[in-house]
From TrEMBL:
<dbReference type="GO" id="GO:0008198">
    <property type="term" value="F:ferrous iron binding"/>
</dbReference>
<keyword id="KW-0560">Oxidoreductase</keyword>
<dbReference type="GO" id="GO:0035516">
    <property type="term" value="F:broad specificity oxidative DNA demethylase activity"/>
</dbReference>
<feature type="binding site">
    <location>
        <position position="120"/>
    </location>
    <ligand>
        <name>Fe cation</name>
    </ligand>
</feature>
<dbReference type="Pfam" id="PF13532">
    <property type="entry name" value="2OG-FeII_Oxy_2"/>
</dbReference>
<dbReference type="GO" id="GO:0005737">
    <property type="term" value="C:cytoplasm"/>
</dbReference>
<dbReference type="InterPro" id="IPR004574">
    <property type="entry name" value="Alkb"/>
</dbReference>
<feature type="domain" description="Fe2OG dioxygenase">
    <location>
        <begin position="100"/>
        <end position="202"/>
    </location>
</feature>
<feature type="binding site">
    <location>
        <position position="118"/>
    </location>
    <ligand>
        <name>Fe cation</name>
    </ligand>
</feature>
<keyword id="KW-0408">Iron</keyword>
<dbReference type="InterPro" id="IPR005123">
    <property type="entry name" value="Oxoglu/Fe-dep_dioxygenase_dom"/>
</dbReference>
<keyword id="KW-0223">Dioxygenase</keyword>
<feature type="binding site">
    <location>
        <position position="174"/>
    </location>
    <ligand>
        <name>Fe cation</name>
    </ligand>
</feature>
<protein>
    <submittedName>
        <fullName>Alpha-ketoglutarate-dependent dioxygenase AlkB (EC)</fullName>
        <ecNumber>1.14.11.33</ecNumber>
    </submittedName>
</protein>
<dbReference type="InterPro" id="IPR027450">
    <property type="entry name" value="AlkB-like"/>
</dbReference>
<dbReference type="InterPro" id="IPR037151">
    <property type="entry name" value="AlkB-like_sf"/>
</dbReference>
<dbReference type="GO" id="GO:0035515">
    <property type="term" value="F:oxidative RNA demethylase activity"/>
</dbReference>
Length: 203
């Protein structure tokens, strides 16, 4: 079994935190949220993952209460906030009652999709980010706060893993250099990888 690990202060990996039934329920929820799309950057770049946002609409330069296709912003469900508080409490070993995420970014990784090294700086809160992984295993690269280059640590994220990024790790560079296609349990019924991150927008 893979042990719980604190990669850096505030960066805690809890392998296999979600049970299989919970993973299936999360996959079903992710399927039900409409509007996955490739995010485009102000500079014209396009992300290879497809993303849907709950609670707010995310632009790579900020959050908005309106989408750019006129569709309403999807609600951030209470049960997802509850799940995030439980995950955060288990990762840090202390109550997380005051943690109130209001945004979720749901990323879908088709085969061979990657995400380059970046910092998450669009939120105006330094509250922790809670991440849930589903489906195919990926290589997650956890770096430093100074640059997207070394030093960094590569860790596999498997379906059901939770990762929390708070404290000094909240502004670390990170990315997904590889997804390992075909590693998902067929019984999960997901081809590819889903990642859900919970955030406090601070707005
Ligand atoms: C470390 N997502 O959506 S989750 C993202 O697997 C993002 O989809 C990746 O990076 C994914 O922005 C990585 C783990 C993660 C999420 C947010 C972080 C790590 C983080 C914020 C700060 C530091
Ligand atoms: Fe990120």
């Amino acid at each position: 079994p893979r042990p719980r690990a604190e990669l850096a202060p505030g960066a805690v990996h809890v392998p296999d935190w979600l049970g299989f039934d919970e993973q299936r329920e999360l996959v079903a929820a992710c399927r039900g949220w409409p509007g996955y799309r490739h995010t485009t950057y102000p500079n014209g770049g396009v992300m290879s993952v497809k993303t849907v946002c709950l609670g707010w609409h995310w632009y790579p330069n900020g959050y908005s209460r309106t989408t750019d296709d006129g569709k309403p912003v999807l609600p951030f469900p209470d049960w997802l906030g509850d799940l995030g508080r439980r995950a955060l409490a288990d990762a840090y070993g202390e109550p997380a009652d005051g943690y109130e995420p209001d945004t979720a970014l749901v990323n879908f990784y088709a085969a061979k999709t990657k995400m380059g090294q970046h910092q998450d700086k669009d939120e105006r809160s330094s509250a922790p980010v809670v991440s849930f992984s589903l489906g195919d295993t990926c290589v997650f690269r956890f770096g430093n706060t100074e640059s997207r280059n070394k030093p960094y640590t590569d860790v596999e994220l498997h379906s059901g893993d939770v990762f929390v990024f708070g404290g000094p790790s909240r502004y670390a560079y990170h990315g997904v250099p590889k997804t390992l296609s075909g590693t998902a349990d067929p019984a999960l019924g997901l081809t590819g990888r889903l990642n859900i991150t919970l955030r406090v927008s601070g707005l």
